[in-house]
UniProtKB/TrEMBL annotation:
The protein's name in its UniProt record: DUF488 domain-containing protein
Pfam hit, one: DUF488-N3i
Lineage: Bacteria, Pseudomonadati, Pseudomonadota, Alphaproteobacteria, Hyphomicrobiales
Length: 118
């Protein structure tokens, strides 16, 4: 079974093509109202631990190690991963994040993790 996962900044305008919109950050993004975000779910439990998030600090040179450590956290977080997989079985899911870096963030890492598991 193939899943359709997209990644998008939460600050971008919601679109019907997004499918289910899931915020995967532990912290609520600044300047975005819950109404404007049009979320299906805020799955903060799937976000990297505070420890890992602070260590990474969105520094690209730490990206490979961040992904490795985050994958280990996801492997241990079966409940949140199963919840997201259940949503993916229903159709497209867009993982939303608040970081400025569009290439190096937890939503990109999470999408890669999910795609590698299918």
């Amino acid at each position: 079974m193939t899943f359709e996962v997209a990644v998008k900044r939460v600050y971008e305008t919601p679109a019907k093509a997004d499918g289910q919109r899931v915020l995967v950050d532990r912290l609520w993004p600044r300047g975005v109202s819950k109404k404007d975000a049009e979320l299906t779910l805020w799955l903060k439990e799937i976000a990297p631990s505070d420890e890992l998030r602070k260590w990474f600090g969105h520094e690209p040179e730490r990206w490979a190690e961040f992904q490795k450590r985050y994958r280990a956290e996801l492997d241990a977080n079966k409940e949140a991963v199963a919840q997201l997989r259940g949503m993916l079985r229903e159709g497209k899911v867009t993982l939303l994040y608040g970081a400025h870096d569009e290439a190096h963030n937890n939503a990109v890492a999470l999408a890669g993790y999910l795609e590698a598991q299918t």
